[in-house]
Amino acid sequence: MPEMPEVEGLAAFLATRLPGREITRAQIVAISALKTYDPPIDLLRGKVVRAVARHGKFLDIATGDEGDPLHLVFHLAKAGWLRWYDTVPATPVKPGRTPIALRVGLDDGSGFDLTEAGTKKSLAVYAVRSPGEVPGIARLGPDPLDPGFTRDALAGMLAGRRTQIKGVLRDQSVIAGIGNAYSDEILHVARLSPYALAANLTDAEIDTLYAATIDTLTDAVATASGKPPADLKDAKRRGMRVHGRRGEACPVCGDEVRSVFFADNSLEYCPTCQTGGKILADRRLSRLLK
Question: Which residues form the FPG-type domain (predicted)?
Answer without folding.
Answer: 241-275
